[in-house]
Amino acid sequence: MNAPALTVDGFVKTFGGVHAVEDVSFTVADGSVAALIGPNGAGKTTLFNLITNFYPADAGQARFYGASLAGLAPEKIARLGLQRTFQTARVFPGMTTLDNVLAGAHRRVRSHGVRQMLWLPGARQEERELAAEAQALLDLVGLSAFSAAAATSLPMGAQKLVEVCRALMARPRMLLLDEPAAGLTDAETAEFASLLRAIRDNGITILVVEHNMSLVMDVADDVIVLDLGRLIARGAPAEVQRDARVVEAYLGAQME
Amino acid sequence: MDQAVQIIIGGIVQGCVFALIALGLSLIYRVTGIINLAQGAFCIFGALLGYTFQVTFNWPMPLAILAAVAGTTVFGLVIARTTFVPGLAYLPNSSMLMLTAGLLTFIEGLTLVLWGSQPYATPTFSGERPLDIFGVLVPTQGLWIAGISAIVILATWFVMGRTALGKALAACAENPMAAQIMGIDVPRMTLMSYGISAMIAALGGIAVAPLMSFQFDTGSFFTNAGFIAVVVGGTSSFIGPVAGGLFLGVTEQLAAGYVSSLFADGVALGLLIITLLWRPQGLFAPRRARRHDVREDVRVHRAIVDFRGHGPALAGIALVIALAAIPWVINDGGLMSSLVITLILFISVLGLDVLMGYAGQVSLGQAAFMAIGGYTSAILATTYGVPPLAATSAGIALSLACALVLSLVTMRLRGAYLALATLAFGLLVDSLTVGLTDLTGGPSGLVGIPSFAIGPLVLASPTAMYFFTLALIVVIVLVLLGGMRSSFGRALQAIRTDQTAAAALGINVPAHKMAAFAIAAVLGSLSGSLYAFDFHFLSPEMVATPRSFELIAMLILGGDGTLIGGLIGAALITLLPTLFQPLALYKTLAEGAILVIVFRYLPEGLLGRGAWLVSRLAGALMETFAPTAAADKLP
């Protein structure tokens, strides 16, 4: 087995007495798709926010290919090659869909602002190449017809796809996706599953929070289950599905 | 010792008024999250209304005061009902702030039209003879102020803490949506809070009027003082703004008494900056942490002006040719001069557009950079005979230095706090241009500034200046366009609405904000220098804070985030008063009205609206062929 891409080591986070995340540890193998599941309020998004340092953790830390992420500003984490998307789609208002995707390439642009302002041929050329790449990504998710439209005018499901494209434009080593398939139809979800597999096959590790079980069972190599801030199970999709604690977390204890 | 007691008493009296304004500001802020910049204008409106009732109409004083307070409250309610409350439903917070800046300008303009520009001194409530309290002379008006303030503060405390109305207002502050669901009429509560704030402001203004001289534009001074008091005190508790106001009043008076009155503004600004850096939540109260994973401002309506393709390029070339042809068509020297000023101001607006339109950093201090550039180059050229080009460069260097310091100091501030820090910066520069008489010539201005020259080439005529400025603008617009359509511009636009998501993409948010600030400062400074050389004269009010508001009005009217839109705004606001001379009195009023109306009905500006219409037209055409074309959604 490969060395882990992401190691989460004993995260603890309390919000005013509520234990949102309690001593959670797991690893995500390099080049795999891991799914983070659990009922509402299980602490999945909080865990994302802890990994990317949007919240300071009360205890514990995350390591990315061995390097500790503790105390790093979100933009430094992005520069290491760890990209995230948000639970509520956060496309940039007032920008076209294409510009939104291009914004993801920010760290890759080599010609700096002054060269862009002087319209230097190299800067223009780079800009054209990036635009073509962004257009190709939009094509891949079926949104290329909307590249000149305001990103906020797209339906929610499409906005989340734009966000995934934006994150991909950064050429990350690993993606953290927060409910990327929310708002997609069943057919679109199936397409999205093959997109996730394609991303993984390109060597990008994925950790995805998802409620859609068929998607999780379809693409995940590894499933991590949280309930009330605790890790209650992890393993291959089929194993986790049979786990009594997982069934109980989802359906309640009334089955006894 | 006696002197110190005297000064402190003076400070408490002044602090009481600041506390009242701060109280009103924090009331509206707590219910809506908006700092109402018009707050100070209600002070002046109330006081001058009181003057009219009492002196002109000769009403008995209690009746005059009552009528003035009632009149101001009704006026405030009308303003809130027609602009502020409906605006809240769809404007982002930064636009709401500018809407209140528009209201401030509008009310000042109205005051100018109604009462003229002369200062007023209203009679005291109970004679001029000060009261002797243990050897300390206290003006009786001071006691009135303290008494009125105490009553207002106690009444507000009672209403907020003990009544159902107070609870409803607090619920709106806590969570407007939940309050709405619980059956609280949030718009009505907002209206109520605005009315109460106007009433409190009027009371404060009427009480302090006899001790100060009031004129139409004293309002921004009060707003600023009230805001600093709110920041120093913090908004979360009821006592914070009151304590902040008193603290600010005493500190300012001590500084004025023992150092110099020029220094008093500096002390206020210093207090503001120290508080914002050291305890952004205010000195007197804690504040809950803000959630960082949720976008703050979802209400953004903006037409997207896309510069790609041949259409915009051709339109741009046509525009430049048309502008270059103007001097051959127009023979009127006065109109030509106004056109030069239009272009010069447009340079400043361009800088503001990068900072506000693209990076979304609201700045109420753009004119301060015009002042720094204008005065630096004018003084160097006039007193030391430095060639204009070198003098202009020196001005730009100084502006750049100031901008970097300002942006470092304000780096952690967002939205309203940043806007008001830039306002404070603008007011500080205002006080310096007036106060440093030896250097700037004081209020009467600096005369004998030479014409702009490039080496031996002297641009003496308006036509020469016109061509030079136009060429400069073409270069500047091309440079900015290159930046804005590339990754630099995209990063600024990303920061505009969502700093958190921008940072998550690896964008260095502080560096980009700083760059935007620097561009705004450089262009503002350049514009200020050209202005001085073109006019051969520079006085403080040409580049003071009202000019900052005017530049914003130009930008918003034309359409922010469009680069070129500001030209439409600059032309309309500069040329209309020239073409209709008798209307000059109404200029401030009209500018305020334009800001308010544009924000209320046309938030994307004239150019943005035009671009939207064009894109809709194109969309409709495409619809005929491909039914998937999507047009922008606009209100």
Number of helices of chain A: 10
Count every beta strand of chain B, where a strand is a DSSP E run of 2 or more residues. 6
Tell me the Rg of chain B in angstroms. Answer: 25 Å
Q: Looking across the biggest beta sheet of chain A, what order are the strands in? A: 6-7-8-3-9-10
Strands of chain A, count: 10
Q: Which two chains have the most extensive interface, and how many residues on each?
A: A-B, 50 and 44 residues
CATH class of chain A: Alpha Beta
The quaternary state of the protein chains shown equals: heterodimer
- Supply the helix-strand structural class of chain A: alpha/beta
Distance between the termini of chain B: 63 Å
Poorly predicted residue ranges of chain A: none
Q: What can you tell me about this protein's structure?
A:
The complex is a heterodimer of chains A (256) and B (635). By secondary structure, chain A is α/β, with parallel strands linked by helices. Chain A has one domain: P-loop containing nucleotide triphosphate hydrolases (Rossmann fold, 3-Layer(aba) Sandwich). In chain A, 38% of the residues lie in helices and 24% in strands. Chain A contains ten helices and ten strands. Chain A has helices at residues 44-51, 74-79, 97-103, 113-117, 121-140, 156-169, 186-201, 213-219, 237-242, 244-251; strands at 4-15, 18-29, 33-37, 59-64, 67-68, 82-84, 174-178, 205-209, 222-227, 230-235. In chain A, the strands form two sheets. In chain A, strands 6-7-8-3-9-10 form a six-stranded mixed sheet, with helices on both faces. In chain A, strand 7, helix 7 and strand 8 (205-209) form a beta-alpha-beta unit. Chain A is globular and about 60 Å long. In chain A, 48% of the residues are buried. Chain B has 635 residues and is an all-alpha fold. Chain B has three domains: 2-278, ABC transporter involved in vitamin B12 uptake, BtuC (Orthogonal Bundle), CATH 1.10.3470; 314-555, no CATH class; 608-635. Chain B is 72% helix and 3% strand. Chain B is built from 25 helices and six strands. In chain B, a hairpin with a 2-residue loop joins strand 1 (131-133) and strand 2. In chain B, helix 1 crosses helix 6 and helix 12 runs antiparallel to helix 18 (462-484). Chain B is globular, with a radius of gyration of 25 Å. Chains A and B meet through helix 2, helix 3, helix 4 and helix 5 of A and helix 18, helix 19 and helix 20 of B.
